[in-house]
Amino acid sequence: MNVQDVLAAQVKEAVSNIFNVTLETVEFQPTRKDFEGDITLVTFPMLRQIKTSPVKLGEAIGDYLVAHNQEIEKFNVVQGFLNIVLADAYYLNFFGKVKDDPDFGKASVGEESIMVEYSSPNTNKPLHLGHIRNNLLGYSVSEILKASGKKVYKTQIINDRGIHICKSMLAWQRFGNDETPESTGLKGDKLVGNYYVKFDKAYKEEVSYLQAQGKTEDEAKAEAPILKDAQEMLRKWEAGDAEVVELWKTMNQWVYDGFEETYAKLGVDFDKNYYESNTYLLGKNVVAEGLEKDIFYRKDDGSVWIDLTDEGLDEKIVLRSDGTAVYMTQDIGTAIQRVKDYHINGMVYTVGNEQDYHFKVLFLILKKLGYEWAENLYHLSYGMVDLPSGKMKSREGTVVDADDLIEEMTATAKNISEELGKLDGYSEAEKEELYRIIGLGALKYYILKVDPRKRILFNPEESVDFQGNTGPFIQYTYARIQSILRKAEFDYSNPIFEYSLNEKEKQLIKQLQLYPETVQLAAENHSPALIANYTYELVKEFNSFYQNVTILGTEDETEKNFRVQLSKAVGDVIKSSFALLGIQVPERM
């Protein structure tokens, strides 16, 4: 039970004993910085039930609390606010319980299970900067939900069918000369992506030629021979043509192998992959059931729709007139299949904000179909990531490739680290590993510290700054703490029950206390930014402590022991919170 719950019970007890009044609720808030106190009771709402002045009420409750709670040292009353000063014993008691707890901040696993979908790429190109934000968000939210006490399954649905992959396949047949990832030394996703770009180049040339022959732009785009050939290839794939299906399997496998390399570099993983080639027919039977229940209706042309105008949305097609599924149909069927597969209570979809409307409609349809778990669906909507150089376009090959960006971040970390001269005594292998940890930490933190819904302008150099609200600044503080622990050549594990805290020590413990509730809040809001910015505040508080008190140099052994323990606890929480963001921390820097 936290201090607020204990105090709330004691305040109700005080009011009942002194004024013979039963309170339903008690309101607390943090004490303002210009007043002495750790937590403040707001007495104004009580005056509706208790006929006295706010100051007299505050003093009566304050006297009662001091008399009945040894962890309350004193109080002061300012108008209708009772500012409570907690004794050092309270903070030492809390600290003694959590300082060596490896699971501090994390809740025990409950009954609720959630599936988090993220990444979900197409198989015609490598992962790019947009996918990086998606992966980092999805992975981090998964870890935060786990820490909040939920069972979590990570998944992706790979868009492995359709005209996009046929374009790459056709271009490889035309221009590839039997190239493979092995023969070229290229990652498979990059090789296939190159042919997607080559298709687009050939397509544009044909469109230009047809326009020169007198066709309109729309006619030329529709009649370009290479596009018609790609459409024919798609028809053959859908008909199960052996040669086309074999090429499709081969080229998709190249891409999957490439994706796996990138995921390993990013440090993300999945419990289950779904493939659109297996799910695109799902949902049709659900549409038939919905028609019987009058949830859907059929138009004269045979297409099936749902009318959501009463809900402030519009009419949405769920089955074409020729009986083929649309994306909405597939998403309905896939959601239902996932619940069958994993018996989950809810799902989180990590998808860009251009799909906001799609998910509003999807969730509403699933609710109308009567699925209770549809109340627990969440669209983790996020904004685009831009670079100072501008927007990205896949077809033109101007995308910021994920692997290239990871390499660039490692190189940037190397350059800045070497300029700062922080790496004396490291072997070359140790240096390379450190550059990777710093570079990836910079990238992940820069992206995750921002509210997911906001658009980001990503600046690689700014992200690898060793000062300010950055990953490397926090990593450096962690490494500094590990240096303190290495130098502390004594047993600092024994608990300390009697100790007079100074203000810096108390503020640091207060910040540690916020960690469990921050994890819960981040889970409720699906926001890694809350974890990132909590960690930054903790690190700022530690650096203020480090600069204002003597840790290893103090003559007082109890003081030295306690301050080393406090430093270790801060380091443990930094490591724990950064793990929720998917960021490693180096032992030395």
UniProtKB/TrEMBL annotation:
Pfam families: Arg_tRNA_synt_N (PF03485), DALR_1 (PF05746), tRNA-synt_1d (PF00750). SUPFAM superfamilies: Anticodon-binding domain of a subclass of class I aminoacyl-tRNA synthetases, Arginyl-tRNA synthetase (ArgRS), N-terminal 'additional' domain, Nucleotidylyl transferase. Belongs to the class-I aminoacyl-tRNA synthetase family. It is found in: Cytoplasm. Its EC number is 6.1.1.19. GO terms for biological process: arginyl-tRNA aminoacylation. Residues 474-589 form the DALR anticodon binding domain. PROSITE patterns: AA_TRNA_LIGASE_I. Its main location: cytoplasm. Monomer. Keywords: Aminoacyl-tRNA synthetase, ATP-binding, Cytoplasm, Ligase, Nucleotide-binding, Protein biosynthesis. It comes from Salinimicrobium profundisediminis. This is Arginine--tRNA ligase.
